[in-house]
C-alpha cells in the first residue's frame, strides 16, 4: 500500500472533501488511517517457535536416517539458542513481525482496530445514527467502511465493497489521499440520498483525516 507520507496538502484535500460531502447530508463521515493495527510480537513469536520445532524435527529425522549421533543436551541447547535469537530479533526489529503472521490474522487485527475506532471515536453516537467510518490500515493492506445502523440497512453491501476496492487500488498506487477523497465523495452521495441536509444540521464529528 501507500508508503509516501501524507502531507498537509493531502490532509487538506480530504478535510475539504468531507466538508463538501457533509454539506449535502445530515450524515457524518469520519476518516482514519493507521500505519499498523497491531504489534504482532506474540503471534510472530508463536509462528517462529512452530518453525523452529518443525526444523528441529526435520534435523532429528535426517540425523537418524544418516546415523548421525547428536547428544540430547546439545540438541536442546541449540533449540533454546535458536529460540532466544529469533525472539531477540523480533523484539529488536519490529518490522519483521508482520511477515510471519498469516494474512487472515492481519486482517482480523485490522478489522478489530476499525471497530475500536468506530466505537472509540463515537461514530456510532450521532443523533440520527448515520455515522460512517472510512478506515485504512496500511501495513495490513486493509480498508473497511463501517456504517451505523441508520444507514447500513439502506445500502447494498456491494456498494461499500466497490468503494473499498477503489480505495485500496489507489493506496496500492501510492495515491491514498485521492482514494480517501473518492471514498468520501461516494459515501457522501449515498448519505445525501437517504439523509439530505436539514435546516440547523450540526457537525458532530471532526472533518479531518485522523492518523494513528
Automatic annotation (TrEMBL):
<feature type="transmembrane region" description="Helical">
    <location>
        <begin position="40"/>
        <end position="68"/>
    </location>
</feature>
<feature type="transmembrane region" description="Helical">
    <location>
        <begin position="80"/>
        <end position="100"/>
    </location>
</feature>
<keyword id="KW-1133">Transmembrane helix</keyword>
<protein>
    <submittedName>
        <fullName>Membrane protein</fullName>
    </submittedName>
</protein>
<keyword id="KW-0812">Transmembrane</keyword>
<dbReference type="Pfam" id="PF04536">
    <property type="entry name" value="TPM_phosphatase"/>
</dbReference>
<dbReference type="InterPro" id="IPR007621">
    <property type="entry name" value="TPM_dom"/>
</dbReference>
<keyword id="KW-0472">Membrane</keyword>
<feature type="domain" description="TPM">
    <location>
        <begin position="113"/>
        <end position="189"/>
    </location>
</feature>
Amino acid at each position: 500500500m501507500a508508503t509516501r507520507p501524507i502531507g498537509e496538502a493531502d490532509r487538506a484535500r480530504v478535510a475539504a472533501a468531507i466538508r463538501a460531502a457533509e454539506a449535502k447530508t445530515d450524515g457524518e463521515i469520519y476518516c482514519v488511517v493507521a500505519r499498523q493495527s497491531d504489534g504482532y510480537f506474540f503471534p510472530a513469536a508463536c509462528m517462529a517457535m512452530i518453525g523452529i520445532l518443525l526444523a528441529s524435527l526435520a534435523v532429528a529425522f535426517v540425523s537418524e536416517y544418516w546415523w548421525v549421533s547428536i547428544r540430547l543436551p546439545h540438541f536442546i541447547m541449540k533449540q533454546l539458542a535458536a529460540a532466544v535469537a529469533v525472539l531477540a530479533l523480533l523484539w529488536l526489529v519490529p518490522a519483521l513481525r508482520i511477515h510471519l503472521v498469516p494474512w487472515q490474522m492481519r486482517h482480523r487485527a485490522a478489522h478489530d482496530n476499525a471497530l475500536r475506532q468506530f466505537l472509540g471515536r463515537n461514530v456510532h453516537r450521532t443523533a440520527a445514527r448515520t455515522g460512517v467510518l472510512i478506515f485504512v490500515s496500511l501495513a495490513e493492506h486493509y480498508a473497511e467502511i463501517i456504517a451505523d445502523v441508520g444507514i447500513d440497512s439502506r445500502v447494498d453491501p456491494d456498494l461499500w465493497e466497490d468503494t473499498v476496492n477503489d480505495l485500496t487500488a489507489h493506496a496500492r498506487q501510492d495515491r491514498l489521499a485521492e482514494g480517501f477523497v473518492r471514498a468520501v465523495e461516494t459515501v457522501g452521495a449515498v448519505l445525501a440520498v437517504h439523509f439530505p441536509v436539514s435546516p440547523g444540521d450540526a457537525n458532530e464529528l471532526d472533518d479531518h483525516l485522523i492518523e494513528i
